[in-house]
Amino acid sequence: MHANQPPAVEINTPAKLNLFLELLDRRADGFHELETVMVAINRFDRIRVALSDTDDVRVECGWLPHQAAVVERYRGSQAVATLPRSQDNLVTRALEQFRQRFSIADGFRATIAKTIPAGAGMGGASSDAAGALRAAAQLCQIDQHDQRLLQLAGELGSDIPFFFGSPQGSMSAAIATGRGEQIDPVSIGGKLHFVVVHPPESVSTAEVYRRCQVPSRPSSAAAMLAALVGGRGTQIASQLLNRLSEPARATSEWIDRVLSAIARTPVLGYQVTGSGSACFGVCPNAAVASRIAHNLQAAGIGSAFAAHSVCIASPTRDLG
Ligand SMILES: C[C@](O)(CO)[C@H](O)COP(=O)(O)OP(=O)(O)OC[C@H]1O[C@@H](n2ccc(N)nc2=O)[C@H](O)[C@@H]1O
Ligand SMILES: Nc1ncnc2c1ncn2[C@@H]1O[C@H](COP(=O)(O)OP(=O)(O)OP(=O)(O)O)[C@@H](O)[C@H]1O
């Protein structure tokens, strides 16, 4: 470490796609019991967390140049979620709660360079918060998989525990139950390829859940889990399901435009991710994914990119 530089840790925080999402029940606290299969993909924010000798938390958050250009292009059209100021950032809340829960006297400074579209159903804020907690734990010599840390993560947001990965080693996909905070890693038979399209309108997760309906006979994720073990794109595509699709489509007209455009491409199957507004198609390989992304990008329905499944990696100690 350089002299006078406070210790710091950096981590690439991935986005997620929901391959399967079924609603099981509406709870008395307003949340929904669900069963969802999530996969981490190679679209990353980068977060750097440093200890500070002041007793507060400050977070800077900005788009990396490529995503800044996308946001700028659509500014003033519909609401593309603006990035929150320090005090409203989920990372600020996560680090403040971490200090309280673990009685940490030092403060934290965090910088987030974002590429994951906000309000897209890709878990950007959750992944940033998980990255912040994991980085803070490493800085304070607390085990990444300490139950108190995972408990805090689940309290802060339903999607956050997924982005901790597995204590048993590399994890790229998991089945999440409860309100999404109970995670069981699942095996996948090979790298999965996708095309992802994010329209120029963000969607509020709370609003989509307000409009959703719990089916009287929920579908099971078992067939999706079996398809993932097999690793064949066609089988995985045939098991896609998202019970939040309908309320998401009712919330943003852009979603139907995006789904229609993806339907005209040779994807194996497609759907909305999470509460939207981003949608994805399952592709047979990387070359097809990038050709379809190129064509969809030209269609004027938002930002399209190719992606593949990735393992959720450990934080790395920064030496400078
Ligand atoms: C749509 C998904 O992204 C799918 O992975 C998640 O279920 C949403 O997870 P999240 O963004 O971490 O959501 P939270 O921050 O916990 O909750 C946001 C809002 O979504 C609703 N919500 C969320 C999760 C859940 N199982 N049931 C709910 O009804 C609640 O109204 C809540 O106020
Ligand atoms: N670090 C952050 N990055 C992005 N958005 C943040 C962050 N912290 C708080 N927010 C707020 O959270 C809202 C939604 O964030 P996010 O991008 O995670 O949505 P999402 O992808 O729909 O999430 P999910 O799939 O978990 O429901 C945004 O409107 C934004 O104002």
Automatic annotation (TrEMBL):
Record bears the keyword Nucleus: no
Every GHMP kinase N-terminal domain range: 89-163
Biochemical pathway: Isoprenoid biosynthesis; isopentenyl diphosphate biosynthesis via DXP pathway; isopentenyl diphosphate from 1-deoxy-D-xylulose 5-phosphate: step 3/6
GHMP kinase C-terminal domain ranges (all copies): 239-300
Residues annotated to bind ATP: 117-127
Catalytic activity: 4-CDP-2-C-methyl-D-erythritol + ATP = 4-CDP-2-C-methyl-D-erythritol 2-phosphate + ADP + H(+)
Record key words, sorted: ATP-binding, Isoprene biosynthesis, Kinase, Nucleotide-binding, Transferase
Reported function: Catalyzes the phosphorylation of the position 2 hydroxy group of 4-diphosphocytidyl-2C-methyl-D-erythritol.
Protein name: 4-diphosphocytidyl-2-C-methyl-D-erythritol kinase
